[in-house]
Amino acid sequence: MSETVKLTYKDKNYEFPLIEGSEDEKGIDIKTLRAETGLITYDPGYKNTGSCKSAITFLNGEEGILRYRGYSIEDLCDKASFLEVAFLLIFGDMPTAKELDLMNSEIRKDSLVDEDLKSILKSFPKSAHPMGVLSSLTSGLIAFNPTSVDIESEEDMREAIIMLMAKFPILASWTHRKVKGLPLNYANTSLSYVENIAHMMFKLPHQDYEPSPVVVNALNKLLILHADHEQNCSTSTVRIVGSSHAGLFASVSAGISALWGPLHGGANQAVIEMLEAIKADGGDTKKYMAKAKDKNDPFRLMGFGHRVYKNFDPRARIIKKAADEVLNELGVNDPVLEIAKGLEKETLNDPYFIDRKLYPNVDFYSGIIYRALGIPTEMFTVMFALGRLPGWIAQWSEMRRNNEPIGRPRQIYTGSKHRSI
Ligand code: CMC
User: Fold this and answer.
1) CA of residue 80 relative to chain centroid, distance
2) In what order do the strands lie in the sheet with 26-28?
3) CA-based, 20 to 30 A from 128: which of 15, 34, 145, 328?
């Protein structure tokens, strides 16, 4: 007989099944809890709540393991292209050469957006944050591509997926061009997916542009590292929005808004701003360490800590090494890299950070690479979104195909009892 978990409440005993994942992680299946006991669970921030079963990404925060569909992030970063990883996440296995070619050519064919989208872009002030603009433009895509997706139809699903994979980098690059006051670029179909991102962002009308292999390799690695991270805030947003049967583009647009926040993807921008502030303040890292530890000061060390990783973030390890390599190869000497390394060293020896298991996360070093590649600070979270897109798509598809019920948590009401006017 399978294992159960017992609960006693008001002298009555209840049993709930234990469920087990493929990597031995266990959970209590409480689907019938309220019906049987009248109780709900209370778990702010869902720190102990599994919202779904998923076969996409495995992560073990204690051991610092991250795998997409069984492949380690270290292997994928070394040996795969971002498009291969996107295929893997979305369709479940590494693509054959033929499958990859097909996906590439479908994306190339769809790498256009309706010219009228430009008028939406035009209506934003130049000072608008690119993440807000990206979320709006992604939402705007729905108006120009109104076909509804029949999730039973492989063809419909694939069409929506390809459409988004093809059009999203165009929109992302346009948010950059808008801030810079530059003409908008389209894809060059002779380039790879990642080369095209660089091309659309950086190609100037009066100059030839050939994306450098250093830039393309670094981008490839960064995009792979960000491609999925199981049920994080933005992915949970995508799944919950999609659970109302809102479409893929609407769900991803909501995910972009969730990613924007400084506690999530927005941390990469916040890290560089923090490091710059420390530099401008004379580089006194100890002062900022003290601020981060002071419970009366809302300041946190951005790029430190993670809800799930309590040992190290494997993505941060890869990025730290890549930051050194990229800066070396490009001959960039960025003083904030030294401040970042100094901060990391201090936190590793500080009881406050040790006790709370706070380590540098993926966002701590990524901004330093983005900066070396010539990407402006306010675009960092857009770069994260470009990487996370296949993850959002895979999670949305899985949620719809598994026919998950609408996401609708309960609450413990703490307001006034009934009163009369
Ligand atoms: N600086 C100083 N103290 C911190 C930090 C930090 N960056 N992060 C957590 N703590 C402390 C927190 O004050 C609390 O202390 P105490 O137990 O004394 O009250 C303890 O550590 C646990 O923190 P928590 O806020 O309960 O942990 P959480 O799992 O709810 O939050 C987090 C995780 C990532 C939001 C948080 O660590 C944080 O705000 N980090 C800074 C922002 C950041 O770098 N975010 C990027 C996350 S990785 C990429 C991504 O997800 O997109």
Assistant:
1) 19
2) 4-9, 12-20, 26-28
3) 145
**Which residue has a Cα nearest atom 11 of ligand 1?**
356
Pocket of ligand 1 (CB under 6 A): 45, 232, 263-265, 267, 292, 300-307, 356, 358, 361-363
Is the separation of the CB atoms in 325 and 213 below 8 Å? no
Alpha-carbon distance 56 to 235, whole Å?
12
Among 256, 306, 319, residue to substitute to test ligand 1 (most atoms within 8 Å of Cβ): 306
Q: What pLDDT shows up at residue 299?
A: 95
d(CA 224, CA 386): 10
Contact 367, 379 (CB under 8 A): no
> Rounded to whole angstroms, how far apart are CA atoms 309 and 315?
10
Q: Is the pLDDT confidence value at 405 over 70?
A: yes
Give the number of other Cβ atoms within 10 Å of residue 298's Cβ: 7
Taking the chain, what is the end-to-end CA distance rounded to the nearest angstrom? Answer: 57
Measured distance CA(288)–CA(346) in Å, rounded: 11
Model pTM score: 0.94
- Helices 82-91 and 380-401 meet at what angle, rounded to 10? 30
45-96 pLDDT, tens digit per residue, is 999 999 999 999 999 999 999 999 999 999 999 999 999 999 999 999 999 9
- Residues written for the chain: 421
> Which residues, 6 or more positions from 75, have their beta carbon under 8 angstroms from its beta carbon?
none
Ligand 1 pocket: which of 226, 304, 310 to mutate (most atoms within 8 A of CB): 304
Catalytic residues: 306, 363
Q: What's residue 1's pLDDT?
A: 59
Please tell me the distance between residue 358's alpha carbon and the centre of ligand 1 in angstroms. 7
Say how many Å lie between the CA of residue 301 and the centre of ligand 1.
8
